[in-house]
């Protein structure tokens, strides 16, 4: 069973999240502060840490940095308010796997956790294959889905991509992932704002097929 550490200074929220995740089949533990979360992360190994971005004394960003030092393989999902989404995006750049905004639906929480667990599975398979390529850009499921979508339908607008991927409510998150893929030269955008794969992006499709075939076998 996958283990998740819930870190938030709101005791009621921690209890609610713990109940939801246990019902979904996960093992859970709780931390009321960043310091407590770090102590637990050192003494135990968690697959995922749910981490509130805004906490007293030690911010979620500071906790993220320390967790990545002691447990680099542990995935972190930031919990943030809508007003601090940009900070959450910054946290993803610094090592968080994803973020969810308060208030959030149970389905959104579970879907995000599911994506991050797929990220772990993807990275494990890539390491076993020992492919000579940096997979940090590809490990995220949303980015992989964008690449596969543009591989099958070149020249798509932002709104079309959100509809095809079923993430109409996550515009900010999609924009962030598209920007990352553009910065790494995997996708490009023409003057008419249409997204498509670059030549490098087309090569990436072959890597994805290799790894995903490995996962399925």
Description of the structure:
The chain is α/β, with parallel strands linked by helices. It is 54% helix and 15% strand. It has helices at 11-23, 34-43, 60-70, 85-93, 106-129, 141-152, 158-165, 171-183, 199-216, and strands at residues 3-7, 27-31, 48-52, 75-81, 98-102, 187-189, 195-197. It has a five-stranded parallel β-sheet with strand order 2-1-3-4-5, with helices on both faces. It has a two-stranded antiparallel ribbon with strand order 6-7. Helix 1 links the parallel strand 1 and strand 2 (27-31). 31% of the residues are buried.
Number of domains: 2
Any idea of the CATH class of the largest domain? Alpha Beta
**How many strand segments?**
7
Overall pLDDT:
85
Architecture (CATH level 2) name of the largest domain:
3-Layer(aba) Sandwich
Q: Uncertain spans, ≥5 residues at pLDDT below 50?
A: none
Q: How much helical structure, as a percent, in the residues?
A: 40-55%
Radius of gyration: 18 Å
Percentage of residues in strands? 15-25%
N- to C-terminal distance: 22 Å
Instruction: Report the CATH topology name of the largest domain.
Output: Rossmann fold
Q: Please tally the helical runs, counting DSSP H or I stretches of 4 or more residues.
A: 9
Oligomeric description of these chains: single chain
Major beta-sheet overview:
5 strands, parallel
Strand line-up of the largest beta sheet: 2-1-3-4-5
Shape descriptor reads: globular
CATH superfamily of the largest domain: Response regulator
